[in-house]
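Appendix B. Chain record.
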Amino acid sequence: MNIKSLFRKKSIAQILRQAEQQDSKEGGIALNKVLSVRDLTAMGIAAVIGAGIFSTVGKACFDGGPAVVLLFVITAIACGFSALCYAEFASQIPISGSAYTYSYVAFGELVAWIIGWALLMEYAVGNITVAISWSSNLSSFLHNIGLHIPEHLSTSFFEAKKAHDEFLNSAISGAVPSDSVKSLHNLWITAPHIGSMPVIFNLPALLITVLITWLIYTGIKESRTSNNLMVAFKLVVILMVIVVGFFYVNPENWVPFAPNGLTGVMKGVSAVFFAYIGFDAISTAAEECKDPQRDLPRGMIYSLIICTVLYILIALVLTGMVSYKQLNVGDFLASAFNSRGMNWLGGIIALSAVVATTTVLLVFQMGQPRIWMNMSRDGLLPKRFARIHPKYKTPSFSTVVTGFVVGIPALFLDSDLVTDLCSIGTLFAFVLVCGGVLIMPAEERQKAKFKIPYINGKYLVSALFVLTVIFIHIYDQDILKNFFSFTEPGKNPSEVFAARIPYYIFIILSTIITVHSYTQNYSLIPVLGLVSCLYLMTELGIRNWIAFGIWLVIGLVIYFSYGYRNSKLNGK
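Structure tokens predicted for this chain:
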């Protein structure tokens, strides 16, 4: 093994030829090419307008106040830059591998494996979160119509255990536990037991995962039709919420606009970004598009624009209807309308939340098997992951594996454990896609049907870097001085230093990018996408970086023990 072999690359022609050869090896069986630009746009909306707008946006509004709309704009801009980079790659490489395949061309095999491994985490972890959210939404909807799922069959084991431990600790310290902690502690005591272990698991989360996995397994046409119908329904509900809510907006609720300052606004970055990550899942359906080089870029950009407008309008209506302080609840949309005496609309919203999270689960669950499939085609995973079903024309084995990978953890895990991990994995993919556009050879980029407009960043990036430093200094004159002091009230220096490591990494990398932009005349849009996604990664905290690093180390062990030796590019 030598260092150079770790970064062996594939040309675009080689990737397209390999996909054709793989289809012939499977007896002429290929994925069904049935998706149009309308279907791709619906897939993007399905993935983006879902768990975020019905579960995580309320907490972001609570932290940032009405100014959370600025966070939506910032995140949309960052995703917009990345979407343009995805669109250019998709128009060059109409293969289902998404950022994994793009990185294989731009950076080489090792980086491609790393991003592929990160994407597997993104989709799996994201769907675990969505499945848990779906279960909560279903319970809420059934409660509204007088039906109830036994609590011990619709609650996460680890969520109940954490509350039980917190209750016991509060009893020792004398603190007063919250009502939710008390409720989960009582569940831990009263649930059926096997020996000393309570029987608590999230059965609806498992059942919806099984149902979605079966739907995806049976064909892309069935998945497309189901998705389009559900997207149409939830868009009607969201537009109704915006229109009806507008008449109950009290502008006084928008004051103060940013009650917790910039810190409060950015505190919701994980939740808001988690709401946006779906557009990249469109690229995993490239081989099932009628005209991927034309339709993929359009589907990504259309869905991102539509979803951004809807998110901003929802946030403005919500924070205008009620005080932002009232939005830190699970069913914040229904709660806002119930407070205005519109309980009937709360029931419709609850049903729409169930439908919306179903579409998110559908699109993400469809994306992950296609990543497995492409990594298998390259020899980095066993051949069975690339198997195409002769009747249904779907990656059959990979789809079943994905069902197990998502369904079993969803039975027991707490969604708080996984949301941030999903965001950091996605941002990492965005960073590499933006960076990949910057280093792609000019002759390869010329072949793309969709090309990012070239704006020379030589002086503009440098100017933005300097202006940002000046703005930070004006905003808080002591921030730069305190940033390197490692002292904060109630914290020891090592803890402060550890928490700031992501920011130090960002400063170093953004400085390097600025210098290279000046010397290499980098294109402005990919640079802005790269820097903005790097910054959003810093806001996810050192613990998530550590957890992400552990996941990557596990992936590297698998790569060096199997993938490197079995790679199609391995001459031996």
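Further analysis of this model is presented in Appendix C.
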